[in-house]
């Protein structure tokens, strides 16, 4: 498909730092997922060139009735993107992503250049990996158990059978990944950033601009400035994230922006973008598993209650947040140390993982005869386990003090059952917590048959929780990178899904 651009961004799991990451004094441990969101930008067919006003059609082939046609009006520096069918369902994430990216392109390259680039109009297709949306209905329709093996048997980009408004999201940050991949694809198509902006993980100026624009659009679409960890993960991949000062975009949080007001604010050289995204990755042979547990909690209301408690109990909250932050930092430091140990002593690391994968974590230190290098690996894994348990205990305490179900009893019971499975390192509730999901870190020894892997043991326990209708997801460090340009043929099922609409 000539002159098409395919860009993808990962989803996210905030393993540690929920609520704290709203304060730039603290950081969050964010793992970007193996599940990715794709934006495909193509010039409309030749027969539609020269259409006025310029039209941009956006299609979401995975949902019923998810096609939006926009008229683009560029008058001087003003860019207005209007939905043709004003009575139809709207998608503010898509509309604002297009409108503000075009406005930035006009500021950067001038009106004539943008109009010339859009002379053929555009067709944009957006698709999320299956894991962004609950596949329970699709699994039961195929009489399949809610297991990883069943999920891997589903066709990629599976049609959900419902309108977007009715989809059960799994909390991987679909809107953040959507916006980041879409603005990145448009910035490339409109030649606002160089074509190689996403060729390496090193944050190029183009990647930084795409991040800043995506953060702005996401906050505008949501009507609030969250911590932004989800967009940062979509842009830069797994990281230790510290939020930017919301003031940097406060002046742009309006229905319309004055011509010329975006470029300087969103520029990577604007030092007011003071977020931090320190590269992070899970150690080898460690898998992040996610269970989509329930219909989900209302994150903004949980956040509102916790922040009210924090405001009314400043001293108590500071002490508790500082304690949680120490556990969060220990978790990230020990996970990074395991990556170093795997590089320094690969054989000792592999042997330790193999042994630990066969027993419960509470027994990991029982054996006294480890050789020195293996003992260091075992002790470091124990520190990770202890950090996860310390985070859980203090997040539960925060929930009790603020009357918010951060780790409610049902989740505590599920997590306690899971972390006692042989080969499971630890777990917790992601992000704001609640009833949405649980995450686990599980060992994955290299030379061990799949049915004996800790992941498989977790699956068999999760399959018993039919009441929780768990649909497990899986993330891993191997593919958890930020925005990247894709080759058509390298994305299984993409061409077929494009034809779905
Ligand atoms: N494939 C898609 N096509 C169009 N819009 C989508 C798609 N997936 C998600 N969205 C938009 O993102 C919103 C969900 O974003 P969000 O609330 O961040 O969910 P989550 O973070 O739990 O995935 C949806 O309501 C919809 O507007
Ligand atoms: C509370 C938070 O710090 C983390 C929320 O993480 P979640 O992953 O729970 O977010 P949703 O996908 O919107 O449900 C709020 C924030 O950082 O913006």
What is the makeup of the main sheet?
9 strands, mixed
**Share in β-strands:** 15-25%
Number of helices: 16
Top-tier CATH class of the largest domain: Alpha Beta
Globular, elongated, flat, extended or rod-shaped: what is the shape? globular
Derived from helix and strand composition plus strand pairing, the structural class reads alpha+beta
- The total strand number stands at 13
What is the succession of H and E elements? EEEEEHHEHHHHHEHHEEHHHHHEEHEEH
Task: Identify the CATH architecture of the largest domain.
Answer: 2-Layer Sandwich
Residue-averaged pLDDT, rounded? 91
End-to-end distance: 17 Å
Could you give a short description of this structure?
The chain has 501 residues and is α+β, with helices and mostly antiparallel strands. It is built from 16 helices and 13 strands.
SSE layout and pairings?
Layout: E1 5-16, E2 28-43, E3 54-59, E4 67-75, E5 78-83, H1 92-109, H2 111-117, E6 122-128, H3 136-141, H4 148-152, H5 174-189, H6 205-222, H7 229-236, E7 239-242, H8 247-250, H9 263-266, E8 276-279, E9 286-292, H10 299-312, H11 314-344, H12 346-356, H13 372-402, H14 409-419, E10 424-428, E11 437-443, H15 454-464, E12 471-475, E13 484-486, H16 494-498
Parallel strand pairs: 3-6
Antiparallel strand pairs: 1-2, 1-13, 2-6, 2-7, 3-4, 4-5, 7-8, 9-11, 9-12, 10-11
Bound molecules: adenosine-5'-diphosphate (ADP) and ligand DP6.
Residues 60, 62, 66, 91, 93, 126, 128, 132, 164, 169, 171-175, 178 line the site of adenosine-5'-diphosphate.
Could you describe the 3D structure shown?
By secondary structure, the protein is of the alpha+beta class. The chain has two domains: 5-280 and 480-500, Ribosomal Protein S5, domain 2, CATH 3.30.230.10; 286-473, GHMP kinase, C-terminal domain (Alpha-Beta Plaits), CATH 3.30.70. Helices cover 40% and strands 18% of the residues. The strands form two sheets. Strands 1, 2, 3, 4, 5, 6, 7, 8 and 13 form a nine-stranded mixed sheet that branches. The chain starts with a strand and ends with a helix. The model has no long low-confidence stretch (mean pLDDT 91). The structure holds adenosine-5'-diphosphate and the ligand C[C@@](O)(CCOP(=O)(O)OP(=O)(O)O)CC(=O)O. The site of the ligand C[C@@](O)(CCOP(=O)(O)OP(=O)(O)O)CC(=O)O has 15 residues, from α10. This is Phosphomevalonate kinase. Pathway: Isoprenoid biosynthesis; isopentenyl diphosphate biosynthesis via mevalonate pathway; isopentenyl diphosphate from (R)-mevalonate: step 2/3. Belongs to the GHMP kinase family. Mevalonate kinase subfamily.
